[in-house]
Amino acid sequence: MEDTRSVASLMDSTSSKIQQLQKAFAELESQRAVTLNLKWKEIEEHFHGLERSLKRRFHELEDQEKEHETKTRKAQELLEKKKAAVEAKEKVSLERLQKKRDAAVFAINSALVNYNNPPPITITSAEDSPNNAFVADGTDENPDGTVQEAEISPEVKAYPQLLKLCGDMDSAGLHKFVSDNRKNLASLKEEIPAAFKAAANPASLVLDSLEGFYPVEAPNGDGKKDGNLLGMRRTCIMLMECLSVLLSGLDGNSLGAVLSESVKQRAKSIAEGWSPLLGSLEMDACNGNSLEAHAFLQLLATFGIVSGFEEDGILKLIPMVSRRRQAAALCRSLGLSEKMPGVIEVLMNSGKQIDAVNLAFAFELTEQFPPVELLKSYLTEAKRSSSQGGPGNASPAVQDEFNERELTGLKAVAKCVEEHNLEEQYPVEPLQKRILQLEKAKAEKKRATEPTKPQTKRPRGAQPRVPDNNNNNNNNNKTGYGRVIPERYPQYVYDNRPFLNGPIMAAQAPPPPPPQTYTFSPAAAAHGNFYGNCYQYQAPPPPYFH
User: Is Coiled coil among this UniProt entry's keywords (predicted)?
Assistant: First the structure.
């Protein structure tokens, strides 16, 4: 700044210097002996031109300096904002880490307390407990996974029938009971784990319920078309999940009593029978919601037989269940947490960015896989597909399919943004506007393709009135007039007029004309294009179904 001020002062003193030079030049011209070719005005114009060029350059340098200062100030503000954002993220991460640490310490302390002070166990004989479950110490363990001592009384309040079904080891009855009460699945899932305690061998009961998961007559058939088969498969998955809930609350000895080696071997043989049937499944066809793949993975996780199968084969099945809500918990129980980055990349490359975002949040991989970028790429692909099916490139049916695909994608993205609280990073207002636009266009097109119904003609002529002798102030007749009975075909009485019955009129009257007949066209009669009053109508064109 000091250099700028000195340059400005020097430029201001230019005028005085020019005046001094003018005086010196005049004195020189008065004392000259020879006439000089130079004129003072030429010298003055030269110096004034230099002054103007210096001032112009000086102002340009000042503008550049101000612009540089503005850019520097904005850069400093941006750096401060980024620094504050990084500090906030660090603070949130530290708080989350501290919560996890406190939870881990609490769990360790609780486990130590339970280990040092085991709960008392009531031991009863086998005769006194016909529906006994399993012992906590696992001393009288049978090879088939049944235990004959230590009674546990389960608490089943809403559905006491579950106790009897589980106590009788009735897997078919259990299937039927779940199917009959499918509207109350939430309460069933809460009580089935407790009801399993009444079974002599809960694991064997669940394995028995898996019979018929693949029909013997058509093991490779399309189960999506059979509603009963779909319901049975969902029940099988739910029962395995309930058994996992029961096993998670047991200690090591009780867990070994329920999941004996014979039970695991039986579960492994079932899984080996299912494994070849999964080879016909395709990831695109499953759409991330395959019941077959889910049941197979749940079987491995519930009975702890993951080590008996190749990890690559298990990883290939994860994208087939990525859309199911149990996908993240299933991956954790299978021990695949470290493999999730690779699974998320497979989902991204196969156009399942929504599932990739859900798994990234579940396994805290959002820094490696930014959710907003994934959602934008998913929406870009959906819009690109819609633009490729423009009016000049595809038929109306194909265009409707592309619009429906874009509408589905927009709704999925909006739902994902709301579930993970990404509104600040990805506003949903433009998405909602586009959704309303597509839904309005869909409704208008549907309304345009609906067939128009012909309007029936209203009968003409006077209508007889029937007075209401019972009650003139009832709700159906508030006007005081008699109730009108509509008559579609009024009786015309022109042929029975009294003045035509005399002898004079009878002699002068011409003979009555023959009754008029109506002829129907065979083609029209075949198609029924006539109303009840014999008027022909033009049938509307058939609607366009897409």
Answer: yes
